[in-house]
Amino acid sequence: MAAWVMKAAALAGALAASACSGGAPGSDTADEGNRVSLRNLTESEVASSAADREFRLKGTLVPTPSDTRSRHFLLRERRTITGNIVAILREERGDKVAYARTEVDCARRLFHVLGVGPSRASAEVATTYDGPLRPITGLPLREELASFICERSGTPLAKA
């Protein structure tokens, strides 16, 4: 069993590393260092086939006008001891699906990705270094996701 745990941890690390990418300023992939691209997660090696569309956890469709190619679903959210919100998201595009665990500071308008994976369970245990919580200004997809997550948790996103 210990070998299985080590293999799962290595796979999660490899999947998380493959989801990190740089991008153009003003996009949801731009950063001084690494940033997980939520806009293109289904195009990364993290994504899996979504042939079986009978997801156990349906989630709530998040309106994302800045990303018309993908559908983003909020599966669950919970408040941390610090008051931030940790949310599990699913991105669907075509026949691919990928999951992300994110953290949002609604009062300070900060966001980052904690883990990604081909399944909800793998995203919940994966550790992705997406950097510290960062401002969402100029990142429309992250702002749309943060706004929805904060509203659902009962703590509206602070005004810009």
UniProtKB/TrEMBL annotation:
Which keywords accompany this UniProt record? Signal
> Which PROSITE patterns is this protein grouped with?
PROKAR_LIPOPROTEIN
UniProt superkingdom: Bacteria
**Signal peptide residues on this chain, from the entry's feature table:** 1-19
State what protein this is by name: Lipoprotein
Q: What is the lineage of its organism?
A: Bacteria, Pseudomonadati, Pseudomonadota, Alphaproteobacteria, Sphingomonadales
